[in-house]
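Lab channel / #folding
Pinned by the channel admin:
"Please post every new chain as: sequence first, then the structure tokens as a reply. Keep commentary short and put observations after the output so the thread stays searchable."

First post following the new format, from NK:
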Amino acid sequence: MVQKLKPNAQKILHDIKSKKIFLLDGATGTYLQDNGLEPGGCPELMNKKNSDVISSMADIYFKNGSDIVLTNSFGGNKYRLRHYGLDNEVFELNKLSAILAKEISEKYIEKFVFGSIGPTGEFLEPLGSVSEADMYEAFANQMSGLLEGGVDGFLIETQIATEETKLAIKVAKENFNVLILASAVYDKGPKGYFTMFGLTPKESLQIFFESGAHVVGTNCGNGSENMVEIAKQLRSFTDNPLIVQANAGIPKIKKQDIIYPESPEFMKEKYKELIKNKINFIGGCCGTNSEHIRLFHDLIRNHNESI
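Reply from TO:
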């Protein structure tokens, strides 16, 4: 089992103990759709076919204040890539996604790259048809490519299935020496917030930290107002590192365009509450762009300069 973390991962954890807040990037999908990704196209294939777009995305987010950018690898597992006939290119496409972001990060001082690992789109037995051994191998292949490309951490994000998330954390913990972050999606019902599989924020924290994650939190599925509510709950249950990435509101369809209603200024006001609640990693999810990140950076810079 891997024990010692990479130096950059150690530094990030050390800085968190000093109360530093890290700013992640904004939406990947939104940026790619605005820069050439056709409906139904494979985002990860752009690492090979449109690498300049992927590099530019990282550069824009770093320029606007991100400390950490995510790789273009959200759907980079063999199950999702199989839909495009690319399941034999998992390692290569993930490695490229990391190399492109890492090359840009090295133009700046103390900038980092986390590998984005989204849901597989499958379910483990007995609920689904995929064995634990097969999914373990799938995660290991994706993570190997990301590590070979130079990532400092894995963000196992937008998770809904408890057992799949636990397995991804297990693979990362047993085989790789990077920071492990796990982020779940919650829906608000009459009795509060739950994942699709019925976990409360408190239960998620306990399960994912016990499984080996260094950082746990939430992303996607909610605008900033709901995310502040979830963040307050999460912080009330633990002193461990937390991550929160809100959507720019709930999308609406207008003249066949997807519109996210929360402006950078609106989200900035809400994000003040994330800083008050000592959320250690803050970023944007669907619908957020470089202007959102620039305003978040203003907030976080003020905090970091005061510690």
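NK: The CA atoms of residues 40 and 84 lie 10 Å apart.
TO: also worth noting, The first strand starts at residue 22 and ends at 23.
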